[in-house]
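User: Hey, quick favor. My workstation is busy. Could you predict this chain's structure for me?
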Amino acid sequence: MAQIGDEFIILDAGHISYDVALYRVEKTVPLRFREKAGKPPETVYKVAGGILEANRKSPVDATKGQRKKLLAKVSKLTGRAKVLILAGDLDDETKEMLQKELEIVSIGRQNAADGAILWFKERTVVAHAAPCSYGIEVLVPYVPRLDYMKDRQYEQHVNGKLVPHGWRPIVNYGDVLDGRSTRKLNVYEAFKTKDGPLNVEVELFTALENANKHWICDNNGKRYDEFLQISTIKADLSNLRSKLVETKSPDENSNYYRLDFEVEIVFDSINLRANIIRDGKKYADAIFGLDDNGEWMQRRSL
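Assistant: No problem, here it is.
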């Protein structure tokens, strides 16, 4: 039975990366733990029968073949902790090395959102804070009186004056994700004519906590370092031609055709899925994951 003050390590050994954290028992009824080796923001992790509060720390960047890095990280966390809770599995050699200092309690190969498994109880998966933001690049209506529009150059489109390289998050840094988390964003595409191709492209990005809140690129079109492009999601929406809505342009001198749809992000154990959806039907379904070098790669698309 856990006692107040007990410390333990949780290690999520995913197929692609490892996530390591040190926790201290703050309360036993209901169960409440706090991550000792973390950073803000403070996040609530729900568990069966209790809550796990933690200062979230970014996942350890330890991919296949980086055993030394993993062992060094665990060693730094080993103090009063005598137990390591293992979600997933490790190779025998790594296990043997860890067992020299720690008792390993394995909880199997169940999975949680985005490869960041922190705690399991029966079949309940912990919620966890997103270590970065996920979102898309958009065109932003030009409103010169707004401070963040200063020195921005607009482009003339059928639906008005728009500024490129805008940022629209779908998942914000620190958002709590649990199990198979799904987030959606309503967007639209403007077409000059209802008879032409109805192709759309969505640029998917991640952003660090300190990223610009409005723009992916600076005034010169150079991308900020805090943003990382995952991929471009493409879809042919020709089957939705009947859903086009004729709309007056802002200057009311012409019309354009508007097509609304949703961009959906789904997190599972080790992958991220990006979908383009209208009326519940998927028109693009791309699956991404991290390769052995920690780079995003597309695994499959619709």
